[in-house]
Amino acid sequence: MADLLFEKKNNIATLTLNRPDRMNAISISMLNDLGEALKEIDEDTEIRAIVVTGAGKGFCSGLDMKDAASGKGIGGSGVLSSGGGAAHLSTREIPTVTLHRIDVPVLCALNGAAAGYGLDLALGCDMRIMSDQAKLLPGFAKRGIVPESGGTWFLPRLVGWAKACEIGFLAEDIDANRALELGLVNKVVGPNELLPTTMEWAEKIAANAPLGIRAMKRLYRHGLTEDFESHTHHVLMQLLLLFRSKDFQEGIQSFIEKREPEFKGR
Q1: pTM, whole model, 2 decimals?
Q2: In total, how many domains does the chain have?
Q3: Which residue, 119, 124, 152, 218, could crosslink 114 as a Cys pair with Cβ 3.0–4.6 Å?
Q4: Distance between CA 75 and CA 220 in Å, rounded?
Q5: Strand 12-17 relative to strand 49-54: parallel, antiparallel, unpaired?
Q6: pLDDT digits over 124-181, tens only?
Q7: What CATH number is given to the structural domain containing 20?
Q8: Domain contains 26
């Protein structure tokens, strides 16, 4: 059975972490498959949105501690690799880095507990919809480590410095309502509503102009490290390109004709 399920349907790619017996703990094959899937999606102009979720009752419990203890998995011997772990992955190939770099919008359907790497993975998505039965488990300080795959970068940007310190230093479990209050998730729904709601959001995104959406995400990302004047210049350059697209023409024409646009990504 594959540790990662990868499905493409109606311009939407769904990635499902698939080790439900281990609460979808990260295995070497899952990590590799996730990285490869994200790179494939990034090069596929037909994909307009990505949904990431977990099989069974959990989203992702983090690195597989049983495998690590046996010395055969990621984290063996107290390092990222122990005889075949993830040491061969460069920083640019780590899935959470790829997740941040790609321009396709990513929605996370948080169906259950997200801990360790799983929490960082969820935070690395652009939007998060959370089951009211799920929990976020930022217990790094209780294990003597730090968020290893982006959490130290994502948290201050998502919730601000003081709240990031509160989350990291206290290391307390965060239920769905608290996650919503903190701004860590966009919406909380019942378990049976989670995937339908997430897919509804993905479908709405996929129906919009994909060139504009990708450009918007790219500009959001660059805006985090640019001054306002430089960023405005980059926005203008991007607009000049988008004005030449058939999607822009379709957007204008559909508005005039009072109909829903049909974007082709060209």
Answers
A1: 0.88
A2: 2
A3: 119
A4: 33
A5: parallel
A6: 999 999 999 999 999 888 888 888 788 899 999 999 999 999 999 999 999 999 999 9
A7: 3.90.226.10
A8: yes
